[in-house]
Design brief:
Elements: H1 2-7, E1 13-19, E2 24-30, E3 32-36, H2 51-67, E4 70-76, E5 84-93, E6 100-106, H3 111-114, E7 117-127, E8 130-139, E9 151-163, E10 166-178, E11 188-204, E12 207-222, E13 227-246, E14 249-268, E15 282-294, E16 299-310
Parallel strand pairs: 3-5
Antiparallel strand pairs: 1-2, 4-5, 6-7, 7-8, 8-9, 9-10, 10-11, 11-12, 12-13, 13-14, 14-15, 15-16
């Protein structure tokens, strides 16, 4: 009986045999979860103790453990006389402080401002289920004639708070650029500050829903003529994120929608430097990536791609770009 229950994913039962010599009765008690430990709030109190239920609780508590710089563990007790089962979801402190510095170099920057760029990322668990990260990117415009005389700088930072009701996060970012190359005398500049808030919730291990709101302010100017165009837009965002691992592959995707709510615009130029923009634009996007671990190379192979379909008047800050 115990084996059959476990084959169906139920981990805690108690079987007792009662009766007479001629008649036997099996009394089966399915243990009800009694949550214990640091992350008890992420456990389904009073539910049956199942493999799927514990996997989901662990997946939902991962962000909290990461923010506390701990590794999760789970312990399942035996069914007691009251029919309860103590399940401990706790965390073991990691040996270091969890702070990470990551540097990188790439050629994915804006072609005319600094396609070659270097980046630095810093992240650190702050405890109390709070995690922070920040990054900075600087273009190297002098390496190519297309961007010589220009510049590109980007920075962003974020805070997140993990709770049993989901992950709440806020992020602020800022980019500044100047076009170099043959057009550098035009003094063409761009600034894009952004502020985003998001709530995400794990539906199943590897599948997360999210919804959020964001504000973007985009300014483009041409100093030679004292022209400038500024757009401030607010939009709602929602979607699903998938992340799975299979053998040496780690793959994932993002399916999202975005709906414009409001737009403010100031133009001091004979035309629209940032093109047409509609306050109530809408778009749908899809992104996918896959990484293959190749230990023989002491590294990995990564592939990624994406696409987007937007309505007419989608602001340039939300448009999809290909190439330079």
């Amino acid at each position: 009986v115990v084996r059959v229950y476990k084959e169906h994913g139920i981990l805690a039962i108690k079987v007792r045999i009662e009766g007479t010599e001629t008649e036997r009765v099996l009394l089966i008690t399915e243990g009800r979860l009694q949550a214990r430990g640091t992350y008890a709030a992420w456990l389904p109190e009073g539910d049956r103790v199942t493999q799927d239920g514990l996997r989901l609780a662990i997946a939902r508590a991962q962000d909290a453990a990461k923010a506390n710089n701990e590794t999760l563990y789970v312990q399942v007790g035996k069914v007691n006389e009251q029919g309860g089962v103590e399940v401990v979801l706790g965390g073991t402190p990691n040996p270091d402080d969890g702070a990470r510095w990551v540097g990188s170099a790439s050629s994915f920057g804006p072609r005319y401002s600094g396609s070659d760029a270097v980046s630095l990322v810093y992240s650190k668990p702050l405890g109390n289920e709070v995690f922070m990260d920040a990054s900075a990117t600087v273009g190297l415009p002098g390496l190519h004639s297309d961007s010589r005389g220009g510049h590109y700088v980007g920075a962003n930072g974020g805070l997140s708070k993990a709770t049993p009701y989901g992950l709440f996060s806020a992020r602020i970012s800022q980019t500044q650029s100047k076009v170099g190359g043959d057009n550098r005398e035009l003094d063409q500049n761009g600034q894009v500050p952004k502020l985003d808030g998001e709530w995400s919730y794990v539906l199943q291990p590897g599948l997360t829903s999210y919804t959020g709101i964001g504000y973007t302010r985009q300014r483009s100017s041409i100093g030679m003529f004292n022209w400038d165009d500024t757009i401030g837009s607010t939009a709602l965002k929602a979607g699903l994120r998938l992340r799975q691992t299979h053998q040496k592959w780690n793959y994932g995707g993002d399916l999202g929608i975005e709906q414009g709510l409001s737009l403010q615009r100031t133009v001091r130029a004979p035309g629209l430097l940032l093109g047409e923009a509609d306050a109530h634009y809408s778009l749908a996007s899809i992104n996918a990536d896959a990484t293959l671990q190749v230990p023989e190379w002491y590294g990995s192979l990564s592939l990624s791609g994406g696409g987007q379909k937007g309505s007419s008047g989608t602001p340039t800050g939300s448009q999809f770009y290909v190439g330079g």
